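Input sequence (542 aa), recorded before submission:
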Amino acid sequence: MKPLNRRDLFKNSLEYGSAAVAGMATRSALRADAPSSPVVVETQDGKLRGVSSLGVTMFKSVPYGGPVDGAGRFMPPPKPAKWAGIRECTKPGPRCIQGHPGQPPGFLTPGAGIVGSYMCGGIQSPDVLLEDEAENCLFLNVVTPGVKGRRPVIVYIHGGGYANLSGLQTVLAGKHAIENDIVLVGINHRLNVFGYTYLGGLSEKYAVGNPGQLDLVMALEWIRDNIERFGGDPHSVTVWGDSGGGEKICTLMAMPAAKGLFHKAIVSSGSSLHAGTVERSTASAKALLAKFNLTEKQVDDLQKIPAQQLHAGAGGGGGGPVVDGHSIPQQTWDPKAPEFSASVPMIIGHCTNETSVMAAGTRDELLSLTEAALPARLAAAGRIPEADVASLLALYRKDHPQDPPSGLYFRILADRGASRNAVTQAELKIEQGKANVYIYQFDWATPLYHGRLRAFHTAEMPLAMRIVLYPEADELSSQISSAYAAFARTGNPSHPGIPEWPAYTIAKRAIMFWDIPKCSVVNDPDPEERAFLKKYPPGGLL
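Predicted structure, token format:
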């Protein structure tokens, strides 16, 4: 039995299948022969030159922070240095070091198989996905319909756990910006060992931890101070993250330094309710020192190790946020929702068959379960007594008779994990009584992997950015994209293209189901299943 490990889920499945938003949304604008013209904007730090093409203006690799290598490693980020002249912002990157320089991030490549093709929206050339990797990676991308005006701003915080990927996806989502008249921002920040190693338990010098999260805060400060020059409204900023990006947003909502820097939040398959502890994070730091034959008194020597060597020695990981008593003063969502963001409305959601993507190519037998094999597999997956499995399956078969055995299997795993956390987070937010929460479930069984992946982890992400591989999903894509834009604009995701989407309440438990041929709002779906599963702790990923 493998215990539920959300960090592994976010790292592995996002790399493989849910980097979700790199694709062809502005495919025509990415053509080498597309007409383009330079656009110059003056920020507080200096002038930037971007490119306008076919209705989309993009500024790539805009610096929002200064160097974080050498003595700056593991430390809070510095402000960027001002520059003279005009800085060229026409090429993306660099992203944080993650072990494959000069390649598309993770599996964001059309050659990554059928899942990669879906995530890339069928784009033919991976050149637009190329970024360098560097320790100094505090850059962001801005995508706007025009530098004049005052539009809602959606800030995309990428997934990939705390170890991989980048904010590159937004430069490929111009259709989302144009159709909805919004400004998109994608952030690169420190990841893995560089962004999520906590050394404060070994030296007071590093008492303020969570540098990767503090990078995000600095990026949001840059947006507050500069986005108006790009046609955005600094008083209407929505943060949106999928998977590990959703987790990062959950943490930002509990950080005093981030208070007031964003006004709405969308958390997709990333409802994280806890941050790490000093004790556990310090144990990890000691293990890192041991890998380089360093003592605790030599902790500063970690700043001197070449970046690629440090990344490799850490195994590409680096933990996650930690309650350091400074940047994160207390547990994030336990026992209650954070007060720093009490007035921030939220959209919270997940996918019906979250972890199916993790089985593709590695545990394919789980994608082709028989009715006879299903009970034993469920019992083996986690902490439900075998005697109770028959009763549980009877409930699910009654309410979801259309699901094949593997569909039921992954539905139950998601209900035990992602769905439970999403509902718990919503209920904690509702208790504050200061902002609305809207819940969705992405239910469309995608054609991926011969239809066996169904509604897998963050499968809605390319659609939300108007990246569509299958024509039958175009209307659903427009519905989700417009809902996020409406929420960014007003705090309410309802719009004429979908049924009225009411705020979630304990009394009605209204959930928007994104599906084809039509989406729908369902009050209190699967109450018996929810009550049954609540008796047991979360189970395994597979």
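Checked by second reader. Residues 1-29 have pLDDT under 50 and may be disordered.
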